[in-house]
Amino acid sequence: MTLSSVMDDAPTARVGRAPLLAAVIVPVITALIFLGADRMLGQVPAFLPAFLALVWGSDLLTAFLLITQFLAGGDRRLLALSCAYLWSAAVIVPHALVFSGLFAPQGLLGATPSSAPWLWTAWHTGFPLLIGLALGPWPRRLEAAPAPAGRRWPLVALASGSMAAGAAVVAWLVTAQAEHVPVIMVNGDYRVLTERFGAAIIAANAVGLLLAVSRFRSAVRGLEAWAVIAVIASCGDVLLTLFAGARFTFGWYGARLLALIAALVVFAALMHQVTALYRRVRRHADELAARNAQLRQANALRDHLVAVVSHELRSPLTAVRGFLEIIEDHPGLGPERTGQMIARSQTLLTRLTMLTEDLLTVPSLEAGGLRVEPQPVDLRQAMAECAALFPEASITVDCPAGPPVLADPLRLQQIIGNYVRNALKYGAPPVLLQARFGSGTVDIRVRDHGTGVPERFVPRLFERFSRADDQRTRGIAGTGLGLSIVASLAEAHGGRAWYDPGSGPGACFVVTLPLAVQDPAPAAASRHEQPEAETRFTP
């Protein structure tokens, strides 16, 4: 795992050209400030405390976020980058205490005029060098695998303690041991610091920048890019401070602005990452909630389907078993009565076959493997056979003579049978089966004489598991699959299933199917020779 990969996991990990744009803007700002760097602006008492507090708080928060990510993922570069901000936060404390005029006229801790500049030097050489070390080339073995979980807290403690101890040592040297360190501040003028140590300070920043830029690519991602911007801003801070000439000049205030940029840019990138991760977690949570709701609904539908199918299977099977027991227990019933019971049992078994086909059709639809084998079918005969499956109902078949329909015979029975069962369940007798031939297609209509379908439910009629929730349907068992199966079978035949709301009383369901191609002459002769027929099936 690398620093880039830390933000690559977030949906907004790629930051495009924004860091490259910032890498251009920051030097431009530095150059513009440099033009008037030696202009005195005067002291603003509240500025320095506010500036140091803001940088200190930002550094601590940045270090905390980086350490948190290190503890979660074990990327050693994250811990190394946090050291830069821990160092900055640790040095700021004695720097503020010894700064003349901030807490005391001459500063605290026995400070000399050079104490604050020396701490500033430690701050502005350590910060870019530590970022450079975090981003620069590492041995392959350190990057090959994350730090073991058991060693992460000890490493954090070691890094934090080292930065705090280093800052304490520097503070002790420039205060208690001030007589042993060179004087670099004379009457508030930085020229001595610039002349004696400016080149070394600039060189340290340049080394840090070169190490950091070694990982700066054209396709920039994540924290690496923004950490480089922090080093660039730190370099601008150093240049302006060294060549501003004194405190409270335009260059000095401009340098503090660049120091703020160096402190805040990685923190802002981390906060952007946290926000992006929160959005993703929130979106995933919403998706999981929606899926859980779908699963609960699917479980409820499954339970309902099992109950309905059990009922639909149990009733015909019980009737067939009863007929067979009567035939077995009463051998003297006679051929006519026995034949009626056998015929009735065959009808019930045929209806069970249709129900079984419905249940087998559903997984075929879900798998995209529904197959039909269309062939020319005599529509009048098919409609009559379907009506005969419901001897207890009053069904009228109105099918004029016409060319055969191009359909799979079994699937055609499924289509018409589902329409009839729907009419018998939710409509009222009599049920009318009609066929109306058109140019190349035929409309098969199944009409009942009930109250029809509620207008608000019509758009959902052919959806799977959909059932109108009203007083009329609540006591009726149903799977909610019949009409959706009709629609899928019609589509598989190259036709369509639809509802005709304004064609008469009750509900009228229609399926449009293609006709078989015929020789026009025999078909015309057939239409003249055979009159339209209407067959009524009554109990």
Automatic annotation (TrEMBL):
Main location per the UniProt record: membrane
Annotated TM spans: 20-37, 49-72, 84-104, 116-135, 155-176, 196-213, 225-244, 250-270
Compartments, record wording: Cell membrane
Coiled coil residues, start to end: none
GO molecular function: phosphorelay sensor kinase activity
Annotated SMART domains: HATPase_c (SM00387), HisKA (SM00388)
UniProt keyword Cytoplasm present: no
The keyword Kinase is annotated on this UniProt entry: yes
Official protein name in the record: histidine kinase
Organism, scientific name: Planomonospora parontospora
